[in-house]
Amino acid sequence: MKYIYLLLTLCFLTFANSSLFAESTYDTGKTVPSGYNKNARPTTPEQFGFYLGGSFTYWQPYERGMDLGIVRYPDPTPVFPNEYDLLDVKSEFKPGFKVLIGCYPTDYDWDVSFGYTWYRMNKSLFFNNADKIIDKLAWEPSESLGQDALAGSKGKWKLRMDMFDFLVGRIYSIGEKLTFKTHIGLKGGIIDQRFNAIYIMDNVAHAPPYITVTSYNKSDSWIVGPKIGLDTYWHLTEDFHIFLNAALNVCYQKYDLKHLYRQDDTYAYDFDYIKKDYKFVNPSIEAIIGLRYASHFGCNDWFHFDLGAGYEIQNYWNQNELRAYVSRLVDDGSYASPSDLVLHGLTINCSLGF
């Protein structure tokens, strides 16, 4: 089903970009093409103009499979079924930022821009309850410790994203109350993740009484690929607008995975280290809707100020290769297909053109 959504999105964005290459001849006395849409870029003192922008982001990431495992409460009576808990490392909203620099390099009203997005998140889960029994450890390949009482556990998820966008587009009027900005370009960057899990078990089967299981998991990846998008501005008044922007990316992505497993007791330890790399072509989509204020000021209105806020969501397909790889080692198939990475939350934009 997600590929149908991607196809529909691509068709829509392709149609929206059909006016991207319209000839800018409306002010030269030449014949205007029948499908031409008049440019609507902010005015500048010269045909060549610059703009600088920044954004504050407050996003929460979500990714299936970032849990320590499943534990159950031992029921004292055999009449009732056991009660289970998922030890999920739940993410939090974290601040980030975007930086944007752009220009209008010619009198054909092209818009060339370069953007950078910075985001970091780390979240830990501590669990300490000797009354629960391990039913399944998420990051332990052997499954040999399933009948031990879980004395304590700790999980930590780290996410690092540095994304870059190089775009060429054009902003133009569709009517009195609607403006489009279509763009094409390249998207690239890195998406790095870590998930470390520590389990401490009170072994009831044999001495020594405690066993410590540690699982270190690391995924470093980089992406690069084409991007196509459409920004829309619905004019409520001369200065206030509702904006709805969407973009589709199809990127080549290379993962470098590392998995380290160690089991310690008083007398000995087991140690495993596995390294693997994967290469995929993964799509991603991003969209934002919100309210925007934009106005000219200064001498002859040569400066343009833009301030907006909205709800943004980004979806990157097939990102949790950490859990998928461990699931293949366990051979249980629960997360054999990597889950998507979703980010959502508040984005506040501000830019100045001159």
Mean pLDDT: 79
Given the C-alpha coordinates, what overall shape results? Answer: elongated
Described by its quaternary structure, the protein is single chain
Radius of gyration, in angstroms, nearest whole number: 26 Å
Assess the beta-strand content as a share of residues: over 45%
Largest sheet: 10 strands, antiparallel, barrel
Count of DSSP strands: 13
**What class, by secondary structure content?**
mainly beta
Give the domain tally. Answer: 1
* Stretches with pLDDT under 50, minimum 5 residues: 18-36
Q: Strand-and-helix sequence, N→C?
A: HEEEEEEEEEEEEHE
Separation, N- and C-terminal Cα atoms? 45 Å
The order of strands across the largest sheet is 1-4-5-7-8-9-10-11-12-13
Separate helix tally: 2
Helix content: under 10%
Structure summary:
The protein is mainly beta.
Structure description:
The chain has one domain (2-353). It has helices at residues 2-16, 321-330, and strands spanning 49-63, 67-73, 83-88, 94-104, 111-127, 133-137, 149-175, 178-202, 210-235, 240-264, 269-297, 303-316, 341-353. The two termini are 45 Å apart. Helices cover 7% and strands 62% of the residues. The chain is elongated. With 354 residues, the protein is mainly beta. The strands form two sheets. It has a ten-stranded antiparallel beta barrel with strand order 1-4-5-7-8-9-10-11-12-13. It has a three-stranded antiparallel β-sheet with strand order 3-2-6, with no helix packed on it. The relative contact order is 0.17. The protein is built from two helices and 13 strands.
